[in-house]
Amino acid sequence: MTSTEPEPAAAATPAAPAQPTLRDVALAARVSPMTVSRTLRGDEGVSEATRQRVREVARSLGYRPNEVARNLRLGRSDGLIGLVVTNLANPFYSQLALGVEEALAEQGMRVLLGNSGEDPTRERQLVHDFISRRLDGLVVVPATHHHGHLGPVQTLGMPVVLAASLPVKVDVDAVLLDDFGGTWEATRHLISAGHHRIGFLGLPAATWTGSERYRGYCAALEEAGIPLSAELSGYRQRDVAAAEKATEALLDLPDPPTAIFAANNRNTIGAYRAIRARGATTRLAGFDDFELADSLGLPLTLVAYDPRELGREAAVLLCDRIAEAGAGAEPGAPRRKVISTRIVEYG
Amino acid sequence: MTSTEPEPAAAATPAAPAQPTLRDVALAARVSPMTVSRTLRGDEGVSEATRQRVREVARSLGYRPNEVARNLRLGRSDGLIGLVVTNLANPFYSQLALGVEEALAEQGMRVLLGNSGEDPTRERQLVHDFISRRLDGLVVVPATHHHGHLGPVQTLGMPVVLAASLPVKVDVDAVLLDDFGGTWEATRHLISAGHHRIGFLGLPAATWTGSERYRGYCAALEEAGIPLSAELSGYRQRDVAAAEKATEALLDLPDPPTAIFAANNRNTIGAYRAIRARGATTRLAGFDDFELADSLGLPLTLVAYDPRELGREAAVLLCDRIAEAGAGAEPGAPRRKVISTRIVEYG
DNA sequence: CTGTTAGCGCCTTCAG
DNA sequence: CTGAAGGCGCTAACAG
After folding, report:
1. Interface A-B: count of C-beta contacts within 8 A
2. How confident is the model at residue A63 (pLDDT cuts 50, 70, 90)?
3. Under an 8 A CB cutoff, do B326 and A9 touch?
4. What's the helix, strand, coil split of chain A in %, to 5?
5. Strand pairing of A342-346 and B110-115?
6. Strand extents, DSSP E, B6-68
7. What 3-state class would DSSP assign to A165?
8. pLDDT digit string (tens) for B68-114?
9. Nearest CA among B328, B320, B327, B330 for reference residue B137
């Protein structure tokens, strides 16, 4: 292990009152394991009498088939998907996770959860662990632009779908937001409301969403003939406290912005706090909708979309690939799915 | 299948480019599978020469041990925990999930996620699926007070920990909030601030947290010699829209409450919306802290605690039990852990 | 209708 | 130091 983690699948020794096996049921019902297997799977060709008896015994013993052994024997996978998100505490990711869970549950599949905490090392560990567990596929919200470990070769052909990030140098599917379009539109709103000095609170520069949103901001400004200003658009952060500080710095400028676009919900909330604390009249806009956004007591323009749908679409794409791989087909070209955004006005 | 779900572990047929097995590596390295196994596990007793060669071949083939088969052979579990929550879209549960994930990751274990959507049938399905997968244990936020299906699970050697709910007729561990104490304290705050007509927005009557919080409210009133009023404390709901309506009804009373205690974050937000829409001066208090609670422009008293800690404690309790079962020890008496709450004042 | 054989991928045990 | 046998729990395929 290169990590600080004890063991991939450490766990404990077997439980004391071991769960009954097919053999136990067979012994108790005085038939062969095969008969039990057939009965419990509803296979044809078991007399009603024994069928009855086997079922009875199985129930009284609390028998449950061991899906692990079952799947091993059947040479098929366990119907398990790995989901790696950067920060489950952010409602964006928890709703995404919910979308994935729901869509997969409809297919009888389950989700193995991994939180990378924005740490690329941790992300790689999780991915490796998931490979060893022979999962059917992965949905990953990458922590950085390093996606090398997610390529088909690295993952041994295990399908991977990226969420909210364009794959870099790897041929995998991805579900994206209209980061550029949404930001562009929101920024234009600000401009057409008469704002010419518009601050931008960005995400770390190397992130896909961050750069796309910045691009959208730049495009809107350019169209309107407004020059870019480094002092107005230089801040990059992803937590509320840092965003609040950055906003204070913007407001402290000799010629402060009359409006601010925040690149995600953390930045929007941080900016809101600073603006409110100062009693400033700075117009605020941002990417991501969030609960109570309508109740903050100041006008707010947000780029809204459904994070759950993003998760659902990622799951759909992944299931497609899994089916494709299962059919032994050659993997087709990488797919892109874009979740559209809409502008909502609050306050 | 009694459910509408396709199959417990449906999934697809095996992937096309099958992942290499120990045997494949052995063949390519011209040694026996045993030697490969030993080498890759870092077992003693393999000459440096073969060791080198095997590692080389394994890497070039992209070999990854099949943890599933490994664990089957070792007769041990996969280091997997099942987590069943009622609604991952509620920040309370997603933070709880994060706590569970983090605490377990420290032990090299992983979390299998299940969202019951408050549906007891779905909860039972999930639990059964988790049993079949031979997980090491379960953390469950039960959808109802029916916990009968969880007893047999534990008997079969799969430890269960309940979160935010007192076990009913089953001997399992549980992590609870100080529902009674928190509500009692908050209600007393309202009373000592001069409020005598205090509305109560409750959760469905059969839930543990709901009834404990109601009890706390009742206790505070009783102590102060304030009679209970059915018209003030009869509403029970768990979503924002219903809470908003209930609050409107309270405000429409001939003699409306001067303060309201809301039994969870959904109710608090619903109440907030109604109060604000009416421009009422009703004093608001509630269970659960939430982001932006300080920014709503009205005084707010909340019963706060760390949901992540709740998840973490549940994981710790569960790991204890797993270790205990692993050591072949007799299971001790059910444990209770209470997460304390504190009052926070906003606005 | 029921049982036997064999093996999924791996590892413990025992021989060489 | 290395290999062969056997089996974890289950089920196809083939007897009887």
Report:
1. 258
2. confident
3. no
4. 45, 15, 40
5. unpaired
6. none
7. coil
8. 888 888 877 778 999 999 999 999 999 999 999 999 999 889 999 99
9. B320
In this structure, what DSSP letter does residue A64 have?
-
Angstrom CA distances, B82 to A109, B98, B221, stand at 14, 13, 40
Q: Is the CB of A14 under 7 A from strand C?
A: no
Strand D: which of residues 62-121 in chain A lie with Cβ below 7 A?
65-66, 69-70, 72-74
Please report the pLDDT score of residue B132 as a whole number.
86
SS3 A111: strand
Distance from first CA to last CA of chain B, Å, rounded?
53
Q: At what angle do helices A22-29 and A48-61 cross, to 10 degrees?
A: 120
| Facing B15 at nearest CB: one of A129, A133, A157 | A157
CA distance A224 to chain B (A): 34
- In order of their start, the domains of chain B are 22-65 (1.10.260.40), 78-176+308-337 (3.40.50.2300), 179-304 (3.40.50.2300)
Residue B126, CA distances (Å) to A21, A88, B150, B186, B314 in order? 21, 21, 11, 36, 18
**Per-position DSSP letters for B251-288, written without gaps between them:** HTSSS--SEEEESSHHHHHHHHHHHHHHT---EEEEES
Could you tell me the strand order of the sheet in which B173-177 lies? A336-339, A173-177, A160-163, A137-140, A80-85, A110-115, B110-115, B80-85, B137-140, B160-163, B173-177, B336-339
* CB of B230 less than 8 A from some CB of A: no
d(CA B126, CA B109) in angstroms, rounded, equals: 19
